[in-house]
Every structure is written in structure tokens, then in C-alpha cells.
Amino acid sequence: MSVNKEIKRITTHTLAELKAKGEPISMLTSYDYSMAKIVDAAGCEVILVGDSASNVMAGHETTLPITLDQMIYHAQAVVRAAARALVVVDLPFGSYQGNSKEALNSAIRIMKESGAHAVKLEGGAEIQESIQRILTAGIPVMGHLGLTPQSIYKFGTYQVRAKEEQEAERLLSDAALLDACGCFAIVLEKIPAKLAAQVTASVKVPTIGIGAGQACNGQVLVVHDMLGITQDFSPRFLRRYANLGEVMHNAVAQYVADVKRHDFPNEKEQY
């Protein structure tokens, strides 16, 4: 395989150009060097170091327990791998809500200690001050509306958001606010496709959907879900592109069997 020595880095400006051209944006999560290297080489424009690492990598029930230090650790590994993709890092729960100074300090730590290119925050008007403060430091911000997992205990469910008119109107208002503040993109999670289309048409910046239909300017999935490494999560919006969980299980089981019957290592596999 020939290696392109002049790899052009994806930037926030690139994403704006893709929206203008009508070319969809691909985004996947990664939390470690090996996975990020594969995702980057396959051509994904954006790698999200998501706080979903709390679920996928650490086995927590929600995204709430993961810490800023842990997010920085994951981000450092991903940044080392990503030669082309824009790397966006979630600010974890408790690192920005209700305190814009702490939000700025959290964002600065992520950028300085990991080398990532942008941060992502969940919410609208209630975190406006934090977003603006981060942006004034020259740090790009991706917004996130709809189902915001860090607020799961407030919602009490992972069901589709903004089906009712009042919540839909607030989401449209929040999207306009994030756009006006200067966010470079907005994730729309688990909202009706018709509403996502309205938001996408009404804001200048790209929208990235997850369970939000075809009209968004891009799509994002958790990489472990779409590869079938996780087996116990099957929402309607998830398309599994592989069943690596089964492949990996069978490979490990075969290894165990080979060791047990003295088949591994054989004479060619020893010194």
C-alpha cells in the first residue's frame, strides 16, 4: 500500500466546506491508539474521543463517572494515531456545567495535554457562558443537542427527545444560539428526523446526527457498536458493519483450546 506523504489535516474549516458542497461528514468514536489509527486511515473526517469511553472502555452504566484526567489519557492516545482526522474531545460531566471558569480550565487542559483540536459540550442556553468563554480562548467548540447522556438522570430515559412541540422549539432555539455563539458544528442525538432537517436548514454550521435521520450534514456512531464488538446495544439507528465480537470470541476460544491441547506453540513458533 502506497503511503501519501502529504496527508492534509481535516480542520473545522474543512467541515464548513463539506457542508457547503453538500458532501456528508463521517465521524466515529475512538478511545485508544490502535483503533484510532484504523479509523483515521479508513478516511473518517472526525474522530470523537467520547465520554462514551465511560461505558465502552470502563463498563460504567452511564457517562457520568469518567473524569477529566481519564478523558485526557484517552485523547492523548487518539491524537498520536490520527494523521488526518479532526480530533474532538468530550468535556466530561462536572467539568463545565455551572462554572464557566472551570469550563475554560478544563478545555485548556484537554488542548494542552492531549494535543486535540476541539472540545464538545452538551447543552444549549444553560451552558452558553461556558461555550463563549472557551471560544474566547481560541478553542473550537462542537455543540450537542437532543439526547444529552450526561443529563440522563434528569430525563430518566434514553428515549427520543424533542417529540413534543415545546421541547422541539427549545431545541431549535438552542441550535440557533450555538450557531450564533460560534460553535463549528452541532451533534443532534436521537431526535425526530423532521426536526433534525429543520435544524440543519436553519443553522450555518454542519450538523452531525446520531439517530437523527438523513438530513444531517454528517453522521456519528460509537465505533465499538458499529463494529459489533459490543453486543448488548441495538437501537434502531445503529447499523452493524461487522460482527467482531463473535470473531474475537471465536479466536480467543480457539487460542485457549490450542494451549490446552499443547498445539500452541508448535515447533515453528519457538526458539
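The record above closes out task 2.4. Task 2.5 opens with a second protein, given below.
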Amino acid sequence: MYRLEAAVLRRRNLGESDRILTVFSRELGKHRFVAKGVRRPGSKLAGHSEPFMISRFMLARTRGLPILSQVETRSAYPRLRLDERAIAVAGLIAERVDVLTAEDEAAPNVFSLVENSLELLDSGAEPARVLLIFDLLLLAEAGFRPGFQTCIACGEALAAEPNAFDLERGGFVCGHCGPAPAGARVVPVNVQKVMRMIDRGDIGQVLAVRVPTELFEQAERLVAEYVATITGRDSTATRVIRDLRLEYDYRSDPSEVEERDVDRREATGP
């Protein structure tokens, strides 16, 4: 027997009444096990193993997948479940962790990132901001941190102008290095500034900065394409986000961005 404190990422039905649960734990990272009888009416395990909650699981090792023995809820995040946008973002957070982490490799920083993101969504933080913060920090933890400060071609500092993001190489290319590479995306200045704020760790400022949500949605669409390039597959959850208008076309520059506020926040960095 062993214990895990984990968030449920994914569930897959098995047989008539069982499920295979994929969770992300503090102790073992991404981990799979079988919850027997969890789909039967009145199962005591079902309510504690729902997505977007953190629970304490007791598991029994077997020759195959471990078997769930006991479970209790630690954090249910009830307010998150009242907002369809927060639910959609929580689903995308779970999907991102599933595709960008290896199985049975401890990653306590990623677990803390998931936990903190669910707490922010539950507290009423803007889902689009939480998602962008989560994605950029997860990419850094997974070894795919984009380059924000210098041109990946020449190494010079990026000017405060629209620069192209190379999806294949994971960084920006300045205008002096010739035409943007095939498949690159030209990113507005203020979108770059917000992404750099997150990269520097100015999370409180990013949550408080007074700019339209569309700016974060532009950045998130770029990140979604970058993740799809890394993983080689499109996101199912991203389509839900798009249907709920949580995405914005990065090719159009929002006219109502309060540039002075973004500049003021940007200037506080190193």
C-alpha cells in the first residue's frame, strides 16, 4: 500500500463499472491506477475522484496497474465549478500537464503550479490570465521555455516592436534577421511584454495589470500553437476554450490596450 496526494487529470472507462484514473501527484508526478466499481451507483470513491480537485489516494500495488483502495478529498474548489470558463481552463490545464510531463517522474514544482492555478480559478481570478501564467510556467518546468529577451537568430536584445515567434525553435526573431521564418507568428508589442512579465515571475503584477482580456487571449493562442508544435497534436480542450471565446486572434492588435499601464509594469522588471 502507498499514498498519493494528487489532482485528477483524466479518466477512462474500463469494463462495466471501473475507471482508469490519470492523476498528477506531489510524490510521483503523473501516475495511473484503476478505480474499481467507481461507476456503480452509490460508489463511495466516485465523489472524491472527480476532475479539478485534489484528493488523498491510498493505492495497492499489483502486477498490473495499482488499485485504488481509499480516497478522501483535500480541496474540492467548489467556486471554480460555477464558472464555465474556469471549468474549461481547468480542463486545459489538466490536458497540458498530461501531454508535457512523463509518467512516474516526481515534479513537485509542477504539482504546486497545478494547485496554485486551481486556487486562483476558485478565487475568481480571470481564467485567461491564469491559463497564460500556467502555460508559460509549465513550459519552463518541462524544458520548453520560450526565449523572450533576445533574438534566437542573432542573440541581440529584442526591440520594442512586433517580432516574429518561431514555433519550431521556440523563440522570437528580430526584424534585422530578415523575413520571418515560415510558420512564424508576428506578435504585438504588448503581448510580448505580458509574456516577459510572466517569464520574470511577476505573477502578482500580471494578475493586477489593467489591460483587456484580449491581450492575454492573443498570447494564449500563440502558446497553444507552440504546445501543438512540441507535442505534434492539436488540443481537444483548446476547441472548448475557443467556443467560450477565451481565445483571440493574435494577428489583430487590440486597439484598447492601455499601453502606459503595461509599460509601467514592464519597467519595474530587471
